[in-house]
Design brief:
The chain is an alpha+beta fold. It contains 12 helices and 12 strands.
């Protein structure tokens, strides 16, 4: 696989970072236009994914030389370009976001094949929305309707979309959702086609478990159902791993009975028991909106973090239990009293919540970059893949440039700090209260009644 490069003319006047995703011959690199500072994603599809495939074709005798293999891969690269062109045509209708530009270049001299570069503006994904904010009831239903509408348009154009997942769904400025990546296959060729590895994910229907499985026309319905399941399950899938189980799923945690029926029918293990097409599932969602009060309240219950705990609401500590506290909790010589507190343990000054580096990393999921003394750029972008950055790479992230979202949070904290403090309370002067003289006892003796009165 050749190294990513600033190809011309598509990436003229661009800066590009190292790949943040490299899987099944597909790499995604953050990029920025020098003049406008607009953020982009460069998607590189390598055909073939590895040179091992070239050697396999030669050893199997399918092709006699590398020239004929190169011609074969040239046809496959043209198929990727055709898919990008079809995505652009669908974007003129409804529900799809196209690539801005694309270009095919041959691999290096020692490699056989082609790299297809695809350029798209950076946009917020549904995957990031799941991580950052709770989905509302109205937002979830609109999400399902937008996806069903886009997939219906896709089918009317003779295609089925087989790569549906939150990373490929983008949130627009008006709050609607669009599909914006490769994943189109012709409907009339489903029975003869197999699912490419680059389109396989946890949202792939369980009956498509390997490259030899026959495709069906309910794959997109299953993916929509699983995405809605995630919206009503606090952003979590009902299983672990990258493959959906071939079994009936339990209802989502926060879905009512009627919504659970819609979702579970879409995610049925048997393709014949699912909604027949996205139109039928969309009609069920519309009927649900007509019969239920769908509003902008969050699906998952949100705890009110602004309510302070009552200091008197503390369980009493038994003296015997308190005596069992080990000496390990007491300060030792190894922990001096003036030892500095770590950033995660420091209290925020004037703000309601602490803002740690971890919080900033969650908010700062958009493309950022810093420039070092040598002029090299280091990029950060995780919208395409949750596992795009390794632990070693995240340790090297520079949080010197804070995003707009975090800036708003810090600005609110500054407003709290700068809020006018009321004048200090003036201690009143002491009042001289006369104390009565003690009552003398009679002959040093006192009756029981007088004693009780005293």
């Amino acid at each position: 696989m050749s190294e990513p490069k600033l190809i011309s003319p598509m990436l003229d006047n661009f800066m590009m970072g190292d790949p943040i995703q490299d899987r099944n011959g597909v790499r995604c690199c953050p990029a920025m236009e020098s003049d406008s500072n607009e953020k982009y994603i460069v998607k590189i599809v390598s055909v073939p994914a590895t040179q091992v495939q070239v050697d396999a074709l030669l050893l199997s005798g399918a092709y006699s030389d590398k020239e004929s293999i190169a011609a074969y891969y040239s046809t496959l690269a043209e198929g990727v370009v055709s898919e990008a062109e079809a995505l652009q045509k669908l974007s003129l209708l409804e529900g799809f976001a196209p690539f801005t530009a694309w270009q095919t270049v041959p691999m290096g001299d020692s490699e056989t094949g082609y790299d297809v570069y695809l350029l798209s503006p950076y946009k917020k994904t549904l995957a990031r929305q799941f991580r950052q904010q709770p989905m509302t009831h109205l937002g979830a239903v609109n999400l399902g309707l937008d996806l069903c509408s886009a997939l219906s348009v896709c089918r009317n154009s003779g295609y089925i979309y087989v790569n549906l997942k939150p990373e490929n769904i983008y949130l627009t400025d008006n709050g609607s959702y669009q599909i914006g990546d490769l994943g189109l296959m012709k409907l009339d060729s489903l029975k003869y086609a197999s699912l490419p590895d680059r389109y396989r994910s946890a949202y792939t229907a369980p009956e498509i478990n390997d490259a030899f499985s026959a495709l069906n026309a309910t794959m997109d319905v299953y993916a929509v159902g699983l995405i809605l399941y995630q919206a009503y399950n606090d952003g979590n899938l009902p299983f672990t791993g990258n493959a959906a189980p071939a079994e009936q799923l339990q209802p989502p945690v926060y879905a009512d009975y009627e919504m659970s029926e819609i979702i579970l029918k879409a995610c049925a293990p048997d393709p014949d028991e699912r909604w027949s097409d996205p139109v039928e599932m969309g009609q069920a969602l519309v009927a649900y909106m007509q019969r239920n009060d769908v509003n902008d309240t969050p699906i998952s219950p949100v705890l009110d973090q602004d309510v302070a705990a009552d200091p008197t609401d503390v369980a009493p500590v038994d003296n015997a239990e308190q005596a069992q506290i080990s000496d390990e909790s007491l300060p030792t010589d190894e922990t001096p009293e003036n030892q500095s507190v770590s950033s995660n343990e420091q209290q925020s000054d004037g703000s309601d919540e602490d803002i740690s580096d971890e919080d900033i990393s969650d908010e700062d999921n958009i493309l950022t970059y810093t420039e070092d003394a040598d002029g090299d750029l280091s990029f950060l972008e995780d919208a395409w893949d949750d596992d795009a950055l390794s632990d070693e790479e995240t340790d090297q992230i520079d949080y010197g440039e804070v995003t707009n979202e975090v800036s708003d949070m810090l600005s609110q904290a500054d407003d709290l700090i700068a809020h006018q403090v009321p004048d200090p309370v003036v201690q009143p002067e002491a009042i001289d209260v006369p104390i009565p003289e003690p009552i003398p006892l009679n002959d040093g003796q006192e009756s029981n009644e007088n004693s009780e009165e005293n």
